[in-house]
Amino acid sequence: MRKKFRSLIPDHEAIHTNRWLRPFRNTLLHPRLWHLNRHSAAGGIAVGLFCGLIPGPFQMLSAAIACVLWRVNLPLALITTLYSNPLTIVPLYVVAYAIGAVLAGNGADGFVHPPDIGDMNFIEWTHALVPWAMDLGKPLVIGLVVLAGGLALAGYFSVRAAWRVMLIRNWRARAAKRGG
Hints:
Blueprint: H1 2-8, H2 12-17, H3 25-28, H4 38-51, H5 59-70, H6 74-80, H7 89-104, H8 122-179
Helix pairs in contact: 4-5, 4-6, 4-8, 7-8
Domain DUF2062: 21-172
Pfam families: DUF2062 (PF09835)
Protein name: DUF2062 domain-containing protein
């Protein structure tokens, strides 16, 4: 799987020669942004999970900035932000609101259900989601931060644990080959 993922990542030459990325070439060519190891993969997933709950089109931009600041895997972070999409954003925001309402002491009594798609087309419905989300206010903001942080921590430690399990399995397989 690691080899397949590496084949999907653009190489340094592609970034170096891309005219749109030329102003950011020195920043984007830092090796830790593209290297795939336990730390960079776990950090990239955590950044992507956290930034995936940022409203609007700023998810990937904020993930890229965070990756540059913390020097974690950029492609993994950008791909991971895609978990929040038009199909998943409403359930994620409902969960975030519930968490925020509990933490803010409001309870879940003040919840307003999201707009029903009914006679609206998909574009109209997504535009109706913005004022709905804005009306939810403080519990939503608190819940989004807590949910994003929780997802980021869970993602980070899950990747670290999975990487360790894979590493131990590979060590044992190599030891078995040498011994038998």
